[in-house]
């Protein structure tokens, strides 16, 4: 019976491709499920042979640790150069959207807290 290895909801395409390549390199058979036309199914990678699950899990854990360190180094390098994306960059690029989101957050907070604070 197949065993779930890796949920791919909100996973960047490059990471998903690297995980597929990792499994292929180590000859671990898997299959992939997609979100479907309506986006309500769970996109994931499943291991076909349960006996290889522990090996695959160890490989995936090691890969994710390495990827985390790599992405963090890239971010720190960009931050030092002043190229990292900031909240100010978001405001400058799309000020109306930025203000609209903050206004929406304010409305939601007001409506959520109004009933608790008016006693």
Kindly report the spatial arrangement of strands forming the biggest sheet: 1-3-2
Strand content: 5-15%
Rg over C-alpha atoms, rounded to the nearest angstrom: 21 Å
So how many helices? Answer: 4
**What is the H-and-E element order?**
EHEEHHH
Helix content: 55-70%
Measured between the Cα atoms of the first and last residue, the distance is 57 Å
Look at the helices and sheets and give the structural class: mainly alpha
> Strand count, sense and closure of the main sheet?
3 strands, antiparallel
- Form type: extended
How many beta strands in the DSSP annotation? 3
Strand and helix layout:
Blueprint: E1 3-7, H1 13-25, E2 30-33, E3 44-47, H2 53-81, H3 87-93, H4 95-117
Antiparallel strand pairs: 1-3, 2-3
Helix pairs in contact: 3-4
Could you characterize what this model shows?
Helix content is 61%, strand content 11%. The longest helix has 29 residues, at 53-81. Helix 3 crosses helix 4 (95-117). It is mainly alpha-helical and 119 residues long. The chain has helices spanning 13-25, 53-81, 87-93, 95-117, and strands spanning 3-7, 30-33, 44-47. A 3-stranded antiparallel sheet has the order 1-3-2, covered by helices on one side.
